[in-house]
Specification:
This protein is of the alpha+beta class. It has helices at residues 2-17, 78-88, 101-104, and strands at 35-38, 46-49, 51-56, 63-69. Helix content is 29%, strand content 20%. The strands form 2 sheets. A two-stranded antiparallel sheet has the order 1-2. The termini are far apart.
């Protein structure tokens, strides 16, 4: 019977053994892929979740692409993934791109 639950027990042991300074900590038992997203704002320095990129049309805001990122990467690295996903759903490739400043700054 232990074999059936072994994966769960190992997961819980990892949670109990983690230290505050450890990398790749588990923040949620129900959603183990959740990670810390630093916001850098005084009133809300951190959020917990997953980063998503949404591509929509400029005038009508129709969503044409969505990309979920499994790691907390800088916004500038998410644009290419999001645009390629949006292009895979369209007959014609996207010609003009509008993005936030954070997405355009390379880090």
């Amino acid at each position: 019977m232990f074999e059936i639950y072994q994966k769960h027990f190992l997961f819980y042991q990892r949670v109990l053994a983690q230290k505050p300074k450890d990398k790749n900590k588990i923040y949620s038992l129900h959603e183990p892929d959740v990670y810390v997203i630093a916001k850098g704002k005084d009133h809300k320095q951190y959020e917990y979740g997953n980063k998503v990129s949404i591509v929509s049309t400029k005038d009508t805001n129709i969503i044409v692409g969505v990309a979920s990122h499994d790691k907390n990467i800088h916004d500038s690295k998410t644009l290419t993934v999001a645009i390629s996903h949006a292009n895979s759903n369209r007959n014609k490739p996207i010609k003009k791109r509008y993005a936030t400043e954070a997405m355009l700054v390379q880090r």
